[in-house]
Automatic annotation (TrEMBL):
InterPro entries: DNase_II. GO terms for molecular function: deoxyribonuclease II activity. Keywords: Hydrolase. This is Plancitoxin-1. Pfam families: DNase_II. The lineage of its organism: Eukaryota, Metazoa, Ecdysozoa, Nematoda, Enoplea. Belongs to the DNase II family. One of its GO terms (biological process) is apoptotic DNA fragmentation.
Amino acid sequence: LNPEGKPALLQRINAGVIILSTNADAAAWIVHTVPGFPIPKTAYTWPAAETAKGHLLLCLTISESQINGIAASLLFVQPIIHYNDIPETETAGMPYFRKLIKGEIPTLPPFTSRGSIRTENAGGPVTVHIYSKSETSKYEIYKKIIVRALKKTIKVWSRRDNKLKGDCRVSQRNIRLITSPASVSGHNTNLELDETSWAVSDPGSIFCHIDKPYFKDQAKEPSLAVCIENNDIFARFDAIAAQLDNCP
């Protein structure tokens, strides 16, 4: 998913996989930070160099009817399709998916997208909101997209530069940066060795995975956020966000 010709720092957008069954109404969308996964038609070997780093993999079990909505959001981030073997007969009613495979991108406004899907879960479906923007929008995704959509303060864990700071100027619309190192199930993790970028809402219940770090220059890049409304998932990540940097 690395855009060609982009600076190395900004190439680090995350990867994803869409899987569907050809004999049942069953599919999955995987979003992750693991380099080189998967390798088409080849057994995957975990890169030893990544063991010391923090990574994230989200696997959403969905019906096939949700795929077109996912594709509509992905169009804005201009992904490179490394491999596709989904039969066209399976996607005949998915116009956005077909555009995605062909490499088409939106050329007219709007240059942002908000969509929602529902997971398939016997214990109760989970709502997943997908926010995306094209590079033409020039929006900073954390403040201009996520905070505006959630209408809440967010606590952010992400690599950061010295340009984009936390923001506490607007009541209940703050961006608070999680202090590094942070504790994950009793193990310390620090931003220098963590490839993930995520946020939790305050007040709670929403966890967001973001495909770009908290850098000022990501406003010039396409970007995607996947936000999940689930108390259990939220609680796990909110526990990591126990310590916050002071507002600038």
